[in-house]
Amino acid sequence: MESTVKRDKTFSQPVNWVTTFFMVAFHIGAIAALFFFSWKAVLTAVILWWVAGSLGIGMGYHRLLTHRGYKTPKWVEYFLTICATLALEGGPIFWVATHRKHHQNTDKEGDPHSPRDGGLWAHMGWIMTGKAMHNKRDSLLPYVPDLRKDKFHVWISEYHWITQVVVGVALLVFGGVPYLLWGAFVRTVFGLHSTWLVNSATHMWGSQRFITGDDSTNSFWVAILTFGEGWHNNHHAHPQMARHGMTWYEIDMNWYGISALKAMGLAWDISLPKFGRDKAIKPQAVPETPAVIAPVVADVIPQEAEGD
What we know:
It contains 13 helices and 2 strands. By secondary structure, the chain is mostly helical. It has a two-stranded antiparallel ribbon with strand order 1-2.
């Protein structure tokens, strides 16, 4: 146990006190919610969890802004971005830049949250300790040239916390303390740990369909908790692909959401897998900086692992 702690990068880095304060406060609020149980409050929390985690993080920050796996009208892009800020995972510039850097350096030097630096570090240590990237770090800028050109994304990256405050006040005013504790604190803590499991668990446990040269795996239970983001090995093999669940039994709620947008005429140019070869990424779909969409690897097609 002692050797594991020593190896985990979390315990060798300085604490980010502001981030740690809010993380501790939200966890305390989540525990307090157990003493204010209400089914209506729980239902409210579930709905907001879907809004923030699926519409926001999965469909918005990840598959749209980071990888440009599909296109939408600007108002839809902005709406999904606002939903994502409710997850308390930072603004779009921070989130997108961090994830693009992860793909560029997956499980090697430069990866912001690899379990090779420790399981706790990959899960939440990289946020609470060390020099986690944030909106004002110059090191973020080369990874988000597309977002830097958009005044809305620049603004909301600075003031991403406003939506959480507005929703929290609304919950308290219209529902009382139980709605605030369940709809803000429990929902946020559950959503954070679910997202963090993609960084940690799906690089530690699970199965690999594709030989990608990293530790990414597919995990059914993480996929359920994250609306489909747990099919992580599939994603690392085809980063720009808007659909992560490749078979009928790989449940991918975020893909179903994108499909719904398409049915309403609100999503198009959707990147889908072409098995046997990768779909060519159109030059105009790639931000103007090298290797921000996919890892730097040899020009080979990800091969399916034997037995899959």
